[in-house]
Design brief:
Elements lengths: L1 H37 L2 H32 L11 H7 L4 H50 L2 E2 L5 E2 L13
Antiparallel strand pairs: 1-2
Helix pairs in contact: 1-2, 1-4, 3-4
């Protein structure tokens, strides 16, 4: 039972780290959203680099969580998935703390996913608006441009820049 207690302690530490990294990622996504809104591309780039590092850390912690769960239960040998829910059910001692940590982690993951979607939607909107803006500038430029052929006569054909930013 002492060995299980050690594994539970390690599992709690991993879950706490996962909650911490997800909290940090929540703040990171919120900062990225703010930078997109304020159009601060340089800061957005540095935050993106920070996000990449956080994603790598999250992946390592997820692997560490899986290993901790496998150490706690023999379910993995039967091919059954090992989850925090399984651990909570199998080990009544400390299960309240694990259950609370599991619920907190689920809430953090859902919040990070919501913010990630919000950022993605915002970036897609900004991309679309920028494309429309560039197309409008091109149209205005073409409306006021006069092109001449080699012989000096006015060219009534399309402007040479028509292909820019047009969808296929």
């Amino acid at each position: 039972m002492t060995k299980n207690k050690e594994h539970l302690t390690k599992l709690n530490a991993v879950v706490d780290e996962l909650i911490e990294i997800n909290t940090a990622m929540e703040h990171l996504y919120q900062k990225q959203i703010d930078m997109v809104i304020r159009q601060e591309v340089d800061l957005l780039g540095s935050l993106t680099e920070e996000q990449i590092k956080s994603n790598e850390r999250l992946k390592k912690l997820s692997d560490k969580l899986g290993n901790s769960l496998k150490q706690l239960t023999d379910d993995s040998e039967n091919g059954d998935p090992v989850t925090l829910q399984t651990v909570v059910q199998n080990f009544s001692t400390d299960s309240t703390k694990l259950k609370d940590a599991r619920e907190n982690l689920i809430n953090k993951v859902e919040s990070v996913a919501r913010l990630r979607k919000q950022l993605t939607d915002l970036l897609e909107f900004a991309h679309q608006q920028t494309g429309q803006f560039l197309h409008m500038i091109q149209e205005l430029g073409n409306a006021h441009s006069v092109h001449y052929r080699k012989d000096g006569a006015m060219d009534t054909g399309g402007a040479s820049s028509v292909a820019i930013n047009q969808k296929a």
